[in-house]
Every structure is written in C-alpha cells, then in structure tokens.
Design goal:
Elements lengths: L26 E6 L4 E4 L6 E4 L2 E6 L5 H20 L11 H16 L15 E8 L5 H6 L6 E11 L4 E10 L5 E13 L4 E12 L1 H7 L3 H8 L3 E8 L3 E6 L4 E8 L4
Antiparallel strand pairs: 1-4, 2-3, 5-6, 5-12, 6-7, 7-8, 8-9, 9-10, 10-11, 11-12
Helix pairs in contact: 1-2
Length: about 260
C-alpha cells in the first residue's frame, strides 16, 4: 500500500516577515552585488544566494521654483558669454550672433522677476553700464565721427534718478593726438510713467567735455545726438538686482548691468 506523505507545517519562527514600505519623499533602494556566496537553506533544502546588500539613497525631486531659478541663472550666464568681446555691438555683429543674443533676451523676458517695473522704481534707479545694444555706428557715420582711428569709445553709463524723473546718459571717449585726452558726451532726459512697464522719454539737454573733444565733434554733433538721443519711449522688459533689459520705440534692445549709485 502506498505511503501517504504529509508535508510538515513550517514553524512560525521561520516565516519571513514582510518588507517595510518605502517612504514617499526619500526612497532607499537595495541592490545586491553580482558576487555572492551560495549557502544551503535550512528551510527549503536547496541552494539560495547569500547577498551582500548595497544601499543607494534617492533624494527628493527639486521644486518647480528651484528649477526656474536655475534656468534663469543659466540664461544670464549664457547671455553674458554670448556678448563677450562684442564691444556692446556698437559697430555691428553677424546676424547669427544677433539672433542668438535675442534668443537669450526673450528667455529672460519670459521669466522677468519684476513684471511691473514702473511700480517698483527702486529696482530701476541708480547707475547702470551698457553691455550690449542693437544701436550701431556703421559706414560713413563711423568715419565722420572719427571712430575708426582717431576717437575710441569708452564705457556707456546711465544714471536714473527716480525721485526727479530724470535719466542721464554718459558716453565716454578717448582721443589720440599729440596728447591723449579723455572726454564724455552727457545727455540729460526726463521720463514719465505711461504703463506698468513703459516710460515716455523727452530730451532735455546735452554737452561734451572737454572743449577739445567738442571741437572734434562740433561739425557732426547732430549725427552723434541722433545715435544716442533717448527721445521716445522705453519698455523695461526685464530687471533684477544686477541686470536690466529694455526695448525702445525704434526696435532697439538694451542690456545693462548695475554698477553702483553714483555717477562714474
């Protein structure tokens, strides 16, 4: 007669407890190394692997705000790299480079941390230095103004007094002659708020110092003012504590960085 085999119950002490559930914020993943020893299982009577665990920690994902801040910082870095060595674009740049710069400008404008700048003029006031503009001095204008050999352009500054509604543009020059001398063109203007992002600008007066430099530009002074005259309107499309971007009624783009509170 066939013998009836009865499987013995597994003692409770040998039952494997359930694994704890991983948390939602930080997950610990347990991976096993490829090299391991094989041992005899006292429970199942067969060979199983004796694994040496390796633990990796998965950090919680970044918040959307952190991602936006990183994107903004990266866009500013790439913008500064793109305008490096272009002499503010004043003597023209290749169209491909110009398009590249405008792409970074539009990206920054889409993430403007101050969407209503004229309501927060404290962020606009102070001294700024021009680092890029689509205004260009080319061909006969550059020749007439002596900007090919005799006259060199220095820094461009803009000082904004929000309490008085005044803006002063300063364009520095150096002239080569028997004695090298430095001078500047100063253009004063008034502005009035016309929208949450736009100001209307009117020309007040201008001057060139010293007199030697005025003598150089006197014949072509109208050309010089025609290039740098801020008359019209300006829309502030981006501004933070360090960088400001604007667009005017003539289609020009201006990129300026903050330098301090006093006139240079």
């Amino acid at each position: 007669m066939a013998t009836k085999l009865v499987q013995q119950p597994i003692p409770a002490s040998h039952v494997i407890p359930p694994k704890p559930r991983a948390t939602k914020i930080i997950k610990t993943l347990r991976l096993f190394s490829a090299t391991h020893s094989r041992t005899k299982s006292p429970i199942f009577g067969e060979c199983i692997s004796s694994f040496r665990p390796i633990y990796f920690t998965k950090v919680a994902e970044q918040s959307p705000g952190m991602v936006e801040d990183e994107t903004l910082a990266q866009a500013k870095t790439e913008l500064y790299q793109a305008i490096q060595g272009l002499n503010r674009g004043i003597f023209g740049i290749p169209s491909a480079k110009k398009s590249e710069i405008e792409g970074f400008v539009k990206l920054l404008e889409s993430q403007n941390p101050t969407p209503d700048p004229t309501l927060k003029l404290e962020k606009v006031g102070g001294c700024w230095k021009l680092v890029y503009s689509t205004i260009t001095i080319l061909g006969s204008k550059r020749t007439k103004l002596g900007l090919r050999d005799f006259i060199s352009l220095g820094d461009f500054f803009q000082i904004i007094d929000v309490t008085k509604g005044k803006a002063v543009n300063v364009v520095k020059f150096s002239a080569k002659g028997l004695n090298l001398f430095n001078g500047k063109l100063t253009i004063e203007a008034s502005f009035k708020i016309s929208s949450k992002a736009r100001v209307d600008i009117s020309y007040d007066q201008s001057s060139i110092t010293p007199v030697q430099l005025m003598n150089v530009f006197r014949k072509n002074y109208d050309i010089l003012l025609g290039i740098f005259n801020p008359q019209g309107w300006l829309e502030i499309t981006y501004v933070d504590d360090e960088l400001r971007i604007g667009r005017d009624d003539k289609g020009n783009i201006f990129i300026l960085e903050r330098t301090g509170d006093n006139e240079p």
